[in-house]
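USER: I would love a firmer grasp of how sequence relates to backbone shape in proteins. This is the protein in question:
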Amino acid sequence: MTLPRTTFPTDEVLARVAASPLSASDIVAGRIERPVETPVPNLLNTSLVLLSVAGWIGLLWAASRVGHPLAVLGVGIVFSYLFLTVYALLHEGSHGNLNSHPRLNTCLGMITGLIFGSPFSMIRVTHQGHHSRNRTDPEIFDLYTDTDSRLLKTAQWYGTLAGFFWPLIPISAVLISVCPGAVRSRLFTRPPLGNANLGDLGSRDVWGMRFELCVLAAVVAGLHVGFGLAWWHWLVLYGCASFNWSTRQYIGHAFTKRDIIDGALNLEHNWLMSRLLLFGEWDLTHHRRPEVPWIYLPRISSHDDPRPGYLAQYWRQWTGPRRTEEVEPSVSQPGEEMGVERHVVGTQ
């Protein structure tokens, strides 16, 4: 198998890409393909995945050797930032942008899912649901309407900011793998407690999740025994990762307008964190062009869009959820319920 050689585009070429906006209906229906002008950086992405694997194993080994709880906490803090990059790579895979060859994209996505602690088969589907439902009622965690319980919304919002979002993902994966009928349960897939995106999972996705969870269990058991890790080593490292990931997971959407595509923000961040996030702070641009790989996002972004400071937006989240009277956005196709036809965005 010969991988295509990546030729990076000029600013003029990227300007033409930026001038070709997508419609919300196309994104919902999955009727988009990656522009030939923005090829996937295969070698760079693969190198980052391999470095992430090495970093994951190295930090687990370090946690088993340093001994003192405060030293393990220090390793956990470092691990939590590696975790952000791992998720950014997993996110690219969910859009088919981790590798231009579909099978390698899936393979690399499964590897990053292994480190993240959840099956790529599930993340790929649920993240596409996020793009289709952005700022609709099931996805306004930062807002409440007259029909919502303000108390419940507040508890959910601060629970997310406090780091309790990530554990729900592997727990949901295990529950669905054991009882796939849960994805048809209103309690499991509808507000106020459920995640609507889980309802998009099909039987093939569930079998993929089962396989990946078995691989994950085997790898974790092997590392646990091989490195002599105690249960609290895992708890500290993934506890730090859970907080660092969960608390910033909705930062690009908090308090934005209720719009499927434009309900997001491009934020201003420092050079180092921008690279660790793989330009993840350019979330508005990503929602406008989800089929374009991460490396091009700053160069196809509009200079007319405001860029609030990342830290200012982070602390703004802690003011709590707000009441809204905005109408829920809808991009239903003629004769279709919104999101019935939903596929992985990007070239597969």
Notes: The radius of gyration is 20 Å. DSSP finds 13 helices and two strands in the chain. Residues 333-348 have pLDDT under 50 and may be disordered. The CA atoms of residues 57 and 279 lie 25 Å apart.
